[in-house]
Amino acid sequence: MTWSLAQVARVCGVSWSGSDVHVTGFSTDSRIIKPGEVFVALRGERFDGHDFIAQAASRGAVAAVVERPSHDLTCVIVSDALLAYAHIAAHHLENLRSGMKVVGITGSSGKTSTKDLLTHVCSSVRNTVASQGSQNNEIGLPATVLSANAKTEVLILEMGMRGIGHIEYLCSIAPPDVSVVLNVGSAHLGELGSRDAIAQAKSEIVSNSRVGAAAVLNADDPRVSAMAALAHGPVAWFGQSDTADFRATNVELNADGTSRFTLHIPDDVPVEVSLQLLGAHQVGNACAVAATAATLGLSSADIVEGLRSARHISRWRMERTVREDGLVVINDAYNANPESMAAAITSLAATAPQGRTVAVLGEMLELGEQSQAEHEAIGRLTREAGIHEVIAVGRAGQWIAAGRGSEGTHVVGTVEDAIELAQQMCHGTDVVLCKASRSIAMERVGAALLAAFGTVSP
Length: 458
What we know:
Blueprint: E1 3-4, H1 5-11, E2 22-23, E3 25-27, E4 37-40, H2 53-58, E5 63-66, E6 75-77, H3 81-94, E7 101-106, H4 111-123, E8 128-130, H5 140-146, E9 154-158, H6 166-173, E10 178-181, H7 189-192, H8 195-207, E11 214-218, H9 222-225, E12 235-239, E13 246-253, E14 258-264, E15 271-278, H10 281-295, H11 300-309, E16 319-323, E17 328-331, H12 338-350, E18 357-361, H13 371-384, E19 389-393, H14 397-404, E20 409-412, H15 415-425, E21 431-435, H16 443-451, E22 455-456
Parallel strand pairs: 3-4, 4-5, 5-6, 7-9, 7-10, 8-9, 10-11, 11-12, 12-13, 17-21, 18-19, 18-21, 19-20
Antiparallel strand pairs: 1-2, 13-14, 14-15, 16-17, 16-22
């Protein structure tokens, strides 16, 4: 759709008496704004977009949505720039709704992997726009919505949360036609206090979807299956239990960490699927994708072909790279919670290297009072799974070591220490997993291991 500055002001709920100009788009980043776009000056804890209005003007911005005036650009002055940004995105979406289906995806783990997989499956047959990386908050989601256009048939949005009301807010911008809930895990225990509270926050995607919207729910997770009572339309169940409509049976892990299984789709013949994605947890994601794609009207053949051909898209999520000397680095360092950490460790254990399995593990944040117990449980899992060596990093390293025991356990203080030790002890026949919460930046370990050698195909 095309915008004028007067329209922008009207959508933001303010009057406009200035000169009008043609607007080509919107950006919250002054570094990449394009000529003709409007700069939305957002404020955060560590930044203030108002400090970069001059930079936006120098790159061709035609105006700015601001909370205080600036002499550098024509300004639409609002009381809350973030809320104005939400109104702009919601208005944009409303004008595109007639030819588009919106999919909202949430869950304690697997959101981005599932979003990437669904995007791959849908893109082969539908014009599809999806969140880039983990653009799943009050800034990233509107940006994704604004990237859709009149040709977009499927808009796939990842919806994250930090507390009660967050997903409700995102749904006020883009209420889903299909809401997908993957699981309710331990992420955000420190903020919300219990899994029941996390389930309440996640359920907002179902209760705030459009009238008649379908819900795609995990039949294996009781807290998710209870959300069926909130659905505004039909429910499609996925998982490995007998009650799932889209079900995986005969699940097996291959020696390289990928998986294969039999996929059951309603009213169709069961079919064998081999995934190129690492980890047994991808089987559940694949079932969720199959249920969602079928709800969108894709054929079973298109779904199966898409699942078989998909490879990882977003960085640092079970990203497998082989060094020239044969060392395998599995970089799963984008984020971590107890469920995703356990899935990554289980996947590492399933590989069959000539050498050793090595896990470089850092802290899982936002676990509150459960933090020590959850890290000790991860340490025990590495022992029970037969991981040969563990480099435990940072303040949680002692907890991981306490759960694992001393054999094959190396506790270090910093990521830099982990890099030094990993470079010394990891050889060309080993498989190395790097994982921790995002702010730990554990991907640096994988990058350092790969830097001294060339890499071959992932």
